[in-house]
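Dear colleague,

Thank you for sharing your sequence with our group. We've completed the structure prediction you requested, and as agreed, I am returning the results in plain text so they can be pasted directly into your records. Please verify that the sequence below matches your submission; if there's any discrepancy, let me know and we will rerun it promptly.
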Amino acid sequence: MKREPSYRAFLYEDETDVHLAFYSAIGRVCVVWANLEFQFDICCNSLYEVLGGDQLVKGPPHAFEKKLDFWKLCFKHLPALDAHQKQALLLATELGVASRDRNRLVHTHWGSLKSADRPPEDMSGHTLRPKRGVYFMRNTKISYHRILAFTEHIANLNTAVLPFVILISQERNRSVSEKSQRPGA
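Please find the predicted structure tokens below.
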């Protein structure tokens, strides 16, 4: 009886250092992105729960694109944030571009990793995308070094979010303090 190939064998047999380096680089993108998105979520939570964002939307946003839209609404319409609107909207644009790049990287089938011991500068993969009711295959190429540079870019965006974490935390604390000092509070 012939043994059926297993997915486990596909993942681990004949794996080289090239494969592991590439997997590690993609994994690092995921970890650094999770940190960025967590910081952004903290901001969105405070914007929604304390600073009046709940008056701008029906419920807290869940998908990252919706969080970006919510962020923009808050910085356009909440008076306490007026002075920071320009920087916040620029950051939202940069986060949107990075999010699309991250999604492309994470959701691509990197099957070409198993085809040869090529250097990591020459990896390609495929995604299926719907367009006008039909799926089409899109080829994607990315280098190992480009993934490392993208990780650095995400880390820099995380650094760019930090002043907003501080600003929003300060506004949150001020708002909570004002509410607690009101008569009957």
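Summary note from our side: The beta strands are 123-131, 134-142.

Kind regards,
the structure core
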